[in-house]
Design brief:
Layout: E1 4-8, H1 14-23, E2 30-36, E3 49-52, H2 61-72, E4 76-78, H3 82-92, H4 96-99, H5 107-114, H6 116-125, E5 133-134, H7 141-151, E6 155-159, E7 169-171, H8 174-183, E8 188-192, H9 200-209, E9 222-233, E10 239-250, E11 253-259, H10 263-278, E12 283-292, E13 295-302, H11 309-314, H12 319-328, E14 345-347, H13 357-366, E15 368-370, H14 373-376, E16 381-386, H15 391-401, E17 406-411, H16 415-422, E18 428-430, H17 432-436, E19 445-449, H18 459-474, H19 476-479, E20 481-489, H20 512-530, E21 535-541, E22 543-545, H21 556-565, E23 570-573, E24 578-583, H22 584-596, E25 605-608, E26 613-615, H23 616-630, E27 638-641, H24 655-661, H25 669-681
Parallel strand pairs: 1-2, 1-4, 2-3, 16-17, 16-19, 17-18, 19-20, 20-21, 21-25, 22-24, 23-27
Antiparallel strand pairs: 3-15, 5-8, 6-7, 6-8, 9-10, 9-12, 10-11, 11-14, 12-13, 24-26
Helix pairs in contact: 3-5, 5-6, 7-8, 15-22, 18-20, 21-23, 21-25, 23-25
């Protein structure tokens, strides 16, 4: 099965944990590799693979990240800290291959976001409300003090590239500011404290005044005037869905969050986002604000998810899903936790993590840690496959074998052939006799039934295949099968239906093959009615094409390609026929995705196809084009014989499957035709 691979920098950070929390219930579709400099941090062992990285502040960190990207080839690279945002913007400048992995923006915009003084200058440029700020000039102490008098004490001192309130101090009096200037410390910015309702700086002053009685063992400042917004700026610069919240911050961390739909806050956030988009920023954008008598003022921007990402998820904003959809045209699916709820508040709390010392030792000594098989036992899936030596079954078996969470057993009529294909990768090879004599065990496993005779094999073979299906399904309960995926066909639909056919269209098989496939569906329904603890579905496949073992030259597309490769004339009779074709790789990946899904949510029947009508003449043209590229430019003539009007429009609608499993085909018809042409070119007769 193909997974969307995420590389997470600084995986041990609070943001790293938030990203992992947001993706927790969708890990079956994802692979996460994490980098972190501290091997004892338990969060990194929540990844599927972890590397011990140099310190992010070290000279070698950038080269290390490049090395891991080249080795792992992730689909998406996520920052775990502010500094990572700037690093990724720099990496995106290196190549188009690196750019497509990084859902971020221009280097210039990243520098604006990452530097608080540049953020202030940016806000002034675009006329945005931003906390009055000053880059202190140590050679002009009077100017600095005059600025502070003008905005009013107390003022904040912040690191230019700080985050999480680290290194932030409150200056109450002129003499404190004078001592700061005399110290000559670089990399700091002064900022006015905003908001009449804030109590935290007054609490801080009390602590300061009591310092004469000793230094407090613990200090806890709560900030109840902090507002934030989060959104995705799409690749074209447009603004995606926005969420605005009011937060309670304690020691720089969000402890409570609730939705705040104040129009001024929304408008302020959109103005900031639209302006930074003009500077070239794309991807996640976070704005921190305070409420004043004059409205909302920004005081910090982030080009990443923030440390309260999971809290926003609980409030109904699934930002990781939105980000991946916007930049990779992929829907990782919903998380039941993140369904939008009625008005409420998220209270955040600590969590406990257990980490094995052996895992820490492995990461320290080897520099890389990978989830071992024992760690995966809880999510290991047992699959019992039929038809694994056939056209679709072989592709599906190969796909599932790439994921070592699967324990695959097969039932086959040709054990020698199966072993030659898969070797010792298969847990158990069973024969039809093993089935009849009840020697098969698939405790709590999934049965994927791909085996069935093809129409060209004749009626006797189809009758035998249906008999095998009946025997298999009737024994499913005592085999220990938990769920059944039955591969059926779109041919079960009556030609009297008006295409495209959906799952509610009336069945009306008109051939022995179609009747047999519909019978297999009825057999499955009988088993499910008899055993309520077994789940099942029938998948009605459209015409499967594409390179693969077991490809037989019976479909019109195969005939076109073979003739085109030989440079022979192609005669198309009719010319108005339309076909619904799905690439074999897409069909296999869809079935693999089905094995990963919650079988309690399966519908009784699903259509599975491309939903695109391919005209027969267009198929002939694509065949000639692909062959011409492979055989030295030889081009076959296409003759359309339209003397006979042949009606054929057997198109199905697959929207139900797409919606339930967030799936869509990836291989174009051009890719399918070319793959078949290359396979046929390898045959000796061509």
């Amino acid at each position: 099965m193909e997974y969307f691979h995420i590389l997470l920098l600084s995986a041990g950070s609070l943001l790293g944990q938030n990203i992992l929390d947001c993706l927790e219930n969708r890990r079956s579709k994802l692979r996460i590799t994490g980098l972190n400099s501290e091997s004892r941090n338990p969060r990194i062992f929540m990844c599927d693979k972890a590397y011990k990285a140099p310190l992010s502040t070290s000279d070698g960190f950038k080269d290390f990240v490049i090395e891991i990207v080249n080795r792992e080839k992730p689909d998406l690279i996520m920052p775990g800290r502010d500094a990572d945002v700037l690093l990724l913007a720099e990496l995106a400048e290196l190549s188009s291959e690196m750019r497509k992995r990084i859902p971020g923006g221009s280097l210039n915009a990243a520098r604006i976001i990452n530097d608080k003084w540049e953020s202030y200058r940016f806000a002034v440029k675009y006329g945005l409300n931003f906390a009055p700020s000053l880059l202190p000039d140590h050679s002009n102490p009077k100017g600095v003090i005059d600025w502070a008098r003008n905005v009013g004490f107390p003022v904040l001192v912040k690191p230019l590239q700080g985050f999480g309130s680290n290194g932030v101090r409150i200056i109450y009096e002129e003499d404190e500011l004078s001592r700061l200037i005399e110290k000559g410390e670089d990399g700091l910015i002064l900022q006015k404290i905003l908001g009449p309702g804030s109590n935290w700086h007054r609490e801080a002053k009390k602590i300061k005044e009591n310092m004469g009685f000793g230094v407090p063992l613990f200090t806890c400042l709560a900030d109840d005037n902090q507002y934030s917004s989060e959104m995705v700026i799409d690749p074209d610069g447009s603004l995606g869905e926005i969420m605005t919240c009011k937060n309670l911050m304690v020691m720089g961390r969000c402890e409570e969050a609730e939705i705040c739909d104040d129009p001024d806050l929304i408008r302020t956030s959109e103005n900031f986002a639209a302006s930074i988009a003009k500077e070239g920023w794309r991807g996640m954008f976070n704005l921190q604000c305070r409420k004043t008598d004059s409205g909302f003022y920004g005081f910090e921007m982030n080009g990443r998810l923030s440390g309260s990402a999971s809290a926003r998820g609980w409030l109904g904003y699934d930002e990781m899903r939105e980000l991946i959809k916007a930049f990779y045209d992929l829907d990782i699916g919903t998380d039941a936790r993140y369904i939008k709820k009625d008005r409420g508040i998220i209270f955040r709390s600590h969590a406990d993590f257990y980490t094995k010392k052996d895992d820490i030792k492995e990461l320290n000594e080897r520099g890389v840690w990978i989830k071992s098989a024992p760690c995966r036992k809880s999510c290991e899936k047992k699959v019992l496959l039929t038809g694994s030596t056939g056209y679709l079954g072989r592709k599906l078996t190969d796909l599932l074998l790439r994921d070592d969470r699967y324990q695959i057993s097969i039932i086959t009529g040709d054990v020698d052939k199966a072993k030659s294909l898969f070797g010792d990768k298969i847990s158990n090879y069973y024969t039809h006799k093993d089935l009849e004599e009840d020697r098969i065990r698939a405790d709590n496993g999934i049965l994927v039934h791909c085996a069935f005779a093809r129409p060209h094999e004749g009626d006797v073979r189809m009758a035998s295949a249906l008999q095998f299906t009946a025997s298999l399904f009737s024994r499913a309960h005592r085999l220990g099968i938990r769920s059944i995926i039955n591969v059926s066909s779109k041919s079960v639909y009556s030609p009297e239906n008006v295409p495209p056919f959906n799952e509610d269209s009336v069945p009306g098989p008109t051939s022995v093959y179609a009747t047999s496939k519909f019978s297999s569906e009825l057999l499955l329904r009988s088993v499910l009615d008899l055993h309520s603890d077994i789940r099942g579905t029938s998948v009605r496949l459209s015409t499967i094409c594409g390179a693969g073992g077991g490809l037989v030259d019976v479909f019109v597309l195969s005939k076109f390609i073979i003739r085109a490769l030989k440079g022979e004339k192609i005669v198309v009779r009719g010319g108005r026929q339309e076909f619904d074709i799905i690439d074999i790789n897409d069909a296999a990946s869809a079935l693999a995705m089905l094995t990963e899904s919650d079988d309690t949510l399966w519908k009784p029947v699903y259509n599975l196809g491309s939903e695109l009508p391919y005209n027969i003449v267009r198929l002939a043209e694509l065949s000639v084009g692909a062959a011409s590229k492979l055989n030295g430019g030889i081009s076959s003539e296409i003759h359309v014989d339209d003397s006979e009007d042949i009606y054929l429009k057997n198109i199905t609608e697959s929207s139900l499957f797409r919606k339930d499993f967030s799936w869509k085909p990836k291989v174009s018809i051009e890719g399918t035709v070319m793959s078949m042409a290359k396979q046929y070119m390898k045959r000796r007769e061509l």
